[in-house]
Write a structure and sequence with these properties.
Elements: E1 17-18, E2 22-27, E3 30-32, E4 38-39, E5 47-53, E6 56-65, H1 69-82, H2 93-114, H3 116-127, H4 143-156, E7 159-168, E8 171-177, E9 181-187, E10 193-197, H5 207-214, H6 220-226, E11 238-239, H7 241-245, E12 266-272, E13 278-283, H8 285-295, H9 300-314, H10 318-339, E14 349-350, E15 353-360, E16 379-388, E17 397-405, E18 411-415, E19 424-428, E20 439-440, E21 445-447, E22 461-462, H11 484-502
Parallel strand pairs: 10-21
Antiparallel strand pairs: 1-5, 2-15, 3-4, 3-14, 5-6, 6-7, 7-8, 7-11, 8-12, 9-10, 9-13, 13-15, 16-17, 16-22, 17-20, 18-19
Helix pairs in contact: 1-2, 3-4, 8-10, 9-10
Length: about 500
């Protein structure tokens, strides 16, 4: 699905310049069956934008829920509030913050204005129902009225979280509402990747949010215990009229002096991008929560950053980079469920996931073209080797390395069946072996906000396998190096060479 197809109708934004310094990947929600098959619970509810107007760049991802109406409305209207001349190069940090705050306020109010007629019709239908009788117990004569009421409620229900990135005067500004995240990933002088979350999750685990709610007269201990507000774990969101105008009907929220769920963004920046080599990640919570479900909480940001860096080396287009990461997370999530292991119970389903990647001079496609080994004239193929934190578990994060294979005329092919499929894989002659040197693509990561590590700012270390690895019933040791991309590229190359030889 293209970005144009993601919108229900065309709009003026179709004429804006799409920023090709960015890429989008997405995946729809899935519910898994016992046999590993899956179904979609609802259509895609996420939205996104990535435009540039002169020297102003605007990006955003929006995690819609209970329908896509709000996320699509915000995608259109927020763009109008920020890219119609409101932001010029003469604006300072305070000006930009003010414009962003005003834009979100206008978008929220405009959405509720857009459903005014539906809300009025909803109130009229309610007035025709007998008071004090549950809908399920109403006589048959009210069924058509109830059906109309249900249809209207479906059309106007729902809301969205938002994470927006604005680049102006080569400064980065982040505005977020809810649980979507922004990661700024920068290459360091020693070739590592520094990963910093530049947004704040607005949840019931956020002490600042709990304090804000306590000031409204709410019992934050009860809210924290519940973990959800109006069925969602975000304490800030756009839309959701029930939480904005009917919160007094919710027992836990009824004591609030004013709206407990707000659409005011938390703004960070401007942060100078001068001299930065790296990339920006914007992602809906469906992406990192799926990874946390499979691997446990704590390292999702670093894992996703490492995946993005790996795909930068393998791909030549940013859309392909972003989509490859989304596909990989979905695969990890599904495989964890199918495995029946300890964490499979957390992976019975996942929500929509969207990933936007914006490049800042980070090298793209370094391993996508055939390269020669300096010593053997071989082809470089990637393999993924697990890295972990000192407190982590094996395989929680992998780093792609380059395995240099001898030239084709020094090999012969054999068939080998591995756990991922029946592919033709390379077999070396007795006299040849891969180059012993592995060339790192520098996807090691560390986090400026993390306290774990070796005390020197390096979060990930090469994992040392235990000396007592036990073979399975077939006498095999569980694999810990991922050769999937190696096999894929080998198969492609060998097929191309076979076709060329036949011609």
């Amino acid at each position: 699905m293209t970005e144009g197809e993601n919108q229900e109708q065309t709009s003026w934004t179709d004429d804006l310049t799409v920023c090709h310094l960015s890429g989008i990947g997405y995946g729809t929600n899935r519910i898994y069956q016992v046999d590993g098959t899956s179904t979609e619970a609802h259509s895609l509810e996420d939205g996104w934008l990535r435009f540039r107007e002169d020297e102003c760049f605007l990006y955003g991802v929006f995690n819609g829920y209970d329908g896509s109406r709000v996320s699509q409305f915000v995608t259109q209207r927020l763009t109008a509030e920020l890219l119609l001349g409101q932001l010029t190069l003469s604006r300072n940090d305070a000006d930009v913050r003010k414009v962003l705050l005003q834009a979100f306020d206008v978008v929220e109010r405009s959405f509720f204005e857009s459903i005014d007629d539906s809300l009025a019709e909803k109130a009229n239908l309610h007035s025709q129902l007998p008071e004090g009788i549950p809908h399920s117990q109403l006589p048959q004569q009210y069924q058509k009225l109830l059906e109309k009421l249900h249809k209207i409620e479906q059309e106007i229900a729902g809301g969205t979280t938002a994470i927006v990135a604005l680049i102006l005067n080569n400064k980065l500004y982040i505005a977020n509402i809810g649980t979507s995240r922004a990661l700024l990933c920068k290459s360091t002088a020693d070739g590592q990747l520094q990963v910093t979350q530049v947004s704040v999750d607005h949840t019931t685990d956020n002490e600042d949010e709990l304090f804000r709610l306590s000031q409204l007269g709410l019992d934050v201990a009860k809210i924290k215990q519940c973990g959800l507000i109006g069925g969602q774990d975000s304490s800030r969101r756009i839309g959701d009229y029930r939480m904005k105008y009917c919160y007094s009907d919710v027992e836990m929220l009824s004591p609030a002096k004013t709206k407990p769920v707000i659409a005011e963004p938390e703004i960070h920046g401007g942060q100078s991008l001068d001299g930065v080599t790296g990339f920006l990640v914007l992602m809906t919570d469906g992406l990192y929560k799926a990874l946390e479900a499979a691997h446990g909480p704590g390292q999702a940001n670093q894992e996703i950053a490492a995946m993005v860096a790996t795909e930068f080396a393998l791909q030549t287009r940013l859309d392909v980079v972003a989509q490859a990461v989304v596909d990989r997370v979905r695969r990890i999530h599904r495989d964890t469920f199918v495995s029946g292991g300890e964490r499979s119970k957390f992976c019975e389903r996942h929500e929509d996931m969207t990933l936007l990647v914006r490049n800042f001079h980070y090298p793209l496609g370094e391993m996508s073209q055939t390269s020669n080994s300096p010593t053997q004239g071989g082809r470089i193929y990637p393999v993924s080797v697990p890295y972990t934190s000192t407190q982590g578990t094996l395989g929680k994060t992998s780093v792609t390395l380059s395995l240099v294979m001898p030239s084709q005329n020094q090999m012969m092919n054999g068939n080998h069946s591995n756990s991922t499929g029946d592919e033709t894989t390379p077999t070396l002659t007795n006299s040849q072996s891969p180059t012993a040197t592995l060339q790192s693509t520098n996807t090691h990561t560390h986090s400026s906000s993390s306290s774990s590590g070796d005390g020197q700012g390096h979060l990930f270390h090469r994992h040392r396998l235990p000396h007592t690895l036990q073979p399975d019933q077939d006498g095999r040791v569980e694999p810990y190096v991922d050769f999937l991309e190696f096999y894929r590229l080998w198969t492609v190359d060998h097929s191309e060479q076979t076709v060329a030889g036949a011609q």
